Amino acid sequence: MNEPARKIREGDTRALARTATGVENRDPQAFETLRDLAPFAGHARIVGITGPPGAGKSTLVDALAAEIRKQNKTVAIVAVDPTSHMTGGAILGDRIRMQQHHADPGIFIRSMATRGGTGGLARATADLAQLMDAAGKDFVIIETVGVGQDEIDITAVAQVTVVVLVPGMGDDVQAIKAGIMEIADIFVINKSDHPGADRVEQELRSMLSLANGHHPPIIRTVATDRTGVPDLLDAIDSAPVATGHRPPATVSIDHLGIAVRALDESIAFYETLGLAVAHRETVAQEKVNVAMLPTADARIELLEPSAADSPISKFLEKRGPGLHHVALRVPDLAAAVASLRAAGAKLLNEPRQGAGGHTYVFVHPASTGGVLLELIQESGS
Which of 135, 152, 141 minimizes the C-alpha distance to 23? Predict the structure, then answer.
C-alpha cells in the first residue's frame, strides 16, 4: 500500500482530498492509490439523489447527512455541479449550502464539475464514489446536476437511486417519466407542504400502476425542517442493493498514445494549449519514456524511445512522429481478452502492467481496422 492510501485508511482528510483531486484530473498516481485501496471498498451504501433543478436536492442531501450522523455513521457527499464557463471547475453552490457541516469530521463534502458530462454526472464520479467507500465512509451520497429523460447515468454508480420531485412541476413529471420510471428505487416528493403535493403523488401512483412489478416507495419530505427525512433514511436502509435495472458497464477512451522524438520539445507544444504534465516515467519493458497530460475526459501520452531497439523507435523510423495507438478502458479486461481470442483477434502480449501501473493488452492493427489498440483494465474492476 502506498503512502497516500495508508494515510486515507488512517482517516487523513487532506490525503483523501488530494487523491480525490487526482482522480478528477485522471492522475495515474491517484489511480495507483485507488488500486491499493480497492480491497477496502464494498462496504458503503452508495445513494444517488437526482431530480429536476429546483427540487431541493442539495437541501435534502444536507438533511439526510445530518440524519445519518445522528446514527453515528460517517458520510461522504459527492455533489456534481455544473461546470463554470469562467474557470472550468465546479460552481460550488452545493458546498456553500452545506457549510454547517464544515466542523464535523464525520462528513466529507466534495464538489466536482460535470466537465462536459451529459448524464447528470462527471466521468470521475464512479471513481470518487469508490474512493470514499474505500476510505471507510458508511454512506456515499451522490447528488446529480439534474435529471431528464436521458440523464440516468446515476444508476450505473448508485446502489439506491432516489428521484426527487416537487409540487408545481406541471407537466414535468410526464416529460421525464421515461427516465424516472426505470431508475427510481425511491421517490421523494420534497416541499410537500406546498400546494400540489397530492397531485404529484397521484401522478406518480398512476404511472407506477402501469409498471410491471416495479413499485418503489413514495415519501413526502420538507427538507428545510427535516420532516420525513428519517423515513427516507429508513427506506434507503431497507432498499435492495441490486435492483436489476442498472445499464451495463461501458467502454471509454482512456488515452491517445503519440510517438515523439523528444519529450521536452513536444511537451512545450501541448503546454501552449493549456495542458500540463501530470506524470512522467520510464517503462523499462517497453523501452519508452512516457509523459502523461490529462485532458477533460481522457489524457494524452507522449511516447519517447529510451533505446534504439524500442517499439517506439521502430515506429518512428517507419512512420515518423504521430498517433501510435488508441487506448480503451474496459470494465473486465480478462473477459475482453477471452472474447477477442474466441473471435480470432491477434493479441500482441499477455495482460501485464504498464505506465501508471495499469494492466493492459495490445491488439494488432490487423484485427482492429488499422489502428494499434490498447485495452486497459478499468480501475477498481
Answer: 135
- Give the strand order in the sheet containing 107-113: 107-113, 75-81, 139-143, 45-50, 160-165, 186-189, 218-220
Same fold, 41-238 and 252-377: no
Task: Write out the three cell numbers for 44.
Answer: 458503503
Distance separating alpha carbons of residues 357 and 270, to the nearest angstrom: 24
Torsion of the alpha carbons at 95, 101, 102 and 103, rounded to the nearest 10: 180
Burial of 147 (0-12, 13-18, 19+ CB in 10 A): buried
Each residue's pLDDT tens digit in the chain (381 positions)?
Answer: 899 999 999 999 999 999 999 998 888 899 899 989 988 988 999 999 988 888 899 999 999 999 999 999 999 999 987 644 444 444 455 455 555 666 788 999 998 866 444 444 666 888 899 999 999 999 999 998 765 544 567 777 889 999 999 998 655 555 455 556 667 899 999 999 999 999 888 888 877 776 656 678 999 999 999 999 999 999 999 987 844 444 445 688 889 999 999 999 999 999 999 999 988 999 888 899 999 999 877 899 999 999 999 999 999 999 999 999 999 998 888 888 888 887 888 999 988 887 667 889 999 999 998 999 999 987 644
In this structure, what DSSP letter does residue 351 have? S
Nearest-angstrom CA–CA distance, 224 and 59: 7
Short-list 311, 65, 70, 55, CA closest to 188: 55
Whole-number Å distance between alpha carbons of 183 and 152: 7
- The helix or strand, by DSSP H or E, that contains position 253, with its residue range, turns out to be strand 252-259
Question: Can you give the pTM of this predicted structure?
Answer: 0.63
Does the domain spanning 252-377 belong to CATH 3.10.180.10? yes
Q: Look up the CATH superfamily of 41-238.
A: P-loop containing nucleotide triphosphate hydrolases (3.40.50.300)
**Angle, nearest 10°, between helix axes 229-238 and 57-70?**
70
H-run or E-run covering 291: strand 288-294
Strand intervals (E) in 44-106: 45-50, 75-81
In this structure, which long-range contacts are made by residues 369-372, counting pairs with CB atoms below 8 Å and at least 24 apart in sequence?
371/323, 371/325, 371/326, 372/324, 372/325, 372/326
The full set of domain ranges for the chain reads: 41-238, 252-377
